[in-house]
Amino acid sequence: MRSFASDNNSGVHPQVMEAIISANVGHAVGYGDDSWTKLAVGLLEETFGGASAEAFIVFNGTGANSVALQAVTQSFNSILCSTTAHIFVDECGAPVRMSGCMAIPIPTTNGKLTTDQVLPYLKNYDVCHHSQPAVLYISQVTELGTVYTVEEIKSLADLLHWHGMYLHMDCARIANACAKLKVSPADLTVKAGADIISFGGTKNGMMMGEAVISFRPKISANLKYYRKQSAQLASKMRYLSAQFIPYLTNDLWLRNAANANAKAARLAAVLKDLPGISFTQETETNQLFFTMPREAAQRLAERYFFYYWNEDEAEVRLVTSWDTTDEDVDELADYMRELLLPA
């Protein structure tokens, strides 16, 4: 049975697995001085803006966020983010510990931040008693499955840059956003004003490996040192790098994300018509958030593993993956009908 708990639970795309196996031939220079890494870095930089991009491959998402935020802060700075932000809720304080900065959460109902919500936090500049705002962290896709448009990102970036701040974007699910909006990764990042991003395909068909990509030479200058100090420099990097080659070739990343989005939409179309189901967020990509009767949720958990987003409210999160099939969705939908429709 397929899992709907998280896209982290899905397997590795066959082309990505083949790339790892193909890289396991002979010896290669370590720490990124190998042909796979050079090719992967080139593909990453081309995908995200060409000459203006510099990519640094790391192990995982928490490491990528921690490295990126260190590169744009000093210990007396603060990092602004939403109350649902991954760095605030789910990374055990790693970016805060490693940067030495405060994380200041901004309330949001849908995971997205607007300029009006951020503006009140841009204060106390040059006051030594207060942490100095330096960077805004946003997630694309957000932790609530919602998507920032290009225009929304540009508005945030313009506001931040006016105040001499940076925009950091966590792009763990940016492929799903691109599939939704039908725009390129560059359109949603460097062209929209992002200064640095964390990017990976672990949730979209890769086994492991992420990348920190900077769009400013000033930020890029010391990234290799932050990566090493953060224990994110792989000695046998070719196995991480090799995955990005098929992932970024022939739109594999986009096709995987489009399938996950489509299967979420298929499931949402069924659930929205079932009694007792109330969606708490719009299903824009591959995450579904809804409340359901508690007894039915308990019975659902006996057959399917999933996460409660808010257990007090019986709010459930289901997530589709690159390898979710119509049959997977229909099987779950049939069981949901069995639980919720009168006999």
In short:
The protein is an alpha/beta fold.
Tell me the distance between the termini: 25 Å
What does the main sheet amount to? Answer: 7 strands, mixed
Please provide the count of β strands.
11
Cα radius of gyration in angstroms = 20 Å
Structural class: alpha/beta
Average pLDDT level: 96
Uncertain residue segments: none
Question: Considering the protein shown, what is the CATH homologous superfamily of the largest domain?
Answer: Type I PLP-dependent aspartate aminotransferase-like (Major domain)
- CATH-defined fold name of the largest domain: Aspartate Aminotransferase, domain 2
- Top CATH class of the largest domain: Alpha Beta
Count of individual helical segments: 15
Strand content: 15-25%
Strand line-up across the major sheet: 1-7-6-5-4-2-3
Helix content: 40-55%
CATH architecture of the largest domain: 3-Layer(aba) Sandwich
Tell me the count of domains.
2
Can you walk through the features of this model?
- It is a single chain.
- The chain has helices spanning 14-23, 35-47, 61-71, 86-89, 94-99, 115-118, 150-162, 174-181, 185-188, 217-220, 223-229, 238-247, 252-271, 294-303, 326-340, and strands spanning 54-58, 77-82, 102-106, 132-139, 166-171, 196-200, 210-214, 278-279, 287-291, 307-310, 315-319.
- With 343 residues, it is of the alpha/beta class.
- The protein folds into 2 domains: 14-247, Type I PLP-dependent aspartate aminotransferase-like (Major domain) (Aspartate Aminotransferase, domain 2); 252-340, Aspartate Aminotransferase, domain 1 (Alpha-Beta Complex), CATH 3.90.1150.
- β10 and β11 (315-319) form a beta hairpin.
- α1 runs antiparallel to α12 (238-247).
- It is globular and about 65 Å long.
- The relative contact order is 0.17.
